[in-house]
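Format notes (please read before filing issues)

Several people have asked whether sequences and structure tokens are stored in separate files. They are not. Every record keeps both together, in the order shown below: the sequence lines, then the token lines. Line labels are part of the format and must not be stripped during preprocessing.
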Amino acid sequence: MEEEGRISYHEYKRRLKKLTEEIKKEMKKSSNKNKKSETLLNLEEKLNKLNELYNKEDDKKNVEENYNNDDNNKDDPFHTNTLYQMNVISKKALRNRKKMEHREYEEEQIEKSRNKEGEKEYEELSLNLKKLNKTIYSIAPDGNCLYESIIHQLKYRIHTYQYTITDFLKLINKEQFSLDNINLKDYINTNFFNSNIFNNINPNDLSSDLLRFITSIYLLQNKELFINFIYDSNDCEDNDTYFKYCEDIIKGVYGSEIEIKALSNILKKKITVYDVNMNISYEEDCEEELFLCFHHKLYALGKHYNSVIDLPS
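Then the structure lines:
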């Protein structure tokens, strides 16, 4: 009998669901939990073959590696726990594949979204920067472009520092940092958190999540400086609205001029932003300067920040 070719994702899911239901029914029928019926063994074998058929060589190797690493399964190739472990691994492989396909699709859409108007703006900005002996350094358009541009600038221009990520972790009294473990309400008290170390921290220890965190805290603790920029005349100036704005920063909302101003204050760096219409500088009195550029129309998916570097002499 000729070997069946690779099946589609939907066909795999259909067969997988059917086999899983049959196995559950058969296991309920069995009075002896330590001895499997011939029907159950056949169903397990079918599921193993289904996983192999869909995943073929690469995913099959992942299944076998995980299987071989489980000492409890060495003597029993049809152990039911192994069966479901293999099923889970297969699902993980599917998720990874779908993530990769989604990423490729996003990159393709980003490339397609470049329009003539955006390209014209990019070329004009490039020419303006060239006159200043500068050029654009592209940052990925992933929603963190403002923060990643600033991190790139810090790595590019700042070569001495006093503090590291260890000092930051001591400050927040945690062994490691993750936005998933942050409760913003814990930082409302201005005496609880001091951001001064960030004007002299190792740039290689920074991440977009970390910059989002300190920006959010700074806005939260300096409401009087930013409240007029966040509310308009139609808004009710209540704490919940302002707090939500700060909370949205750590949830991944795109950065704006408000966040640039806050980061300029935190980092104690002058930040100059170029675009085709004007140049804006924040914190004029600071000695060290970072350079960004802003694109209004480069991507159809939204506005974008890039880093600006010096042209080779």
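For reference, the curators noted about this record: The longest helix spans residues 80-113. Residues 57-67, 69-86 have pLDDT under 50 and may be disordered.
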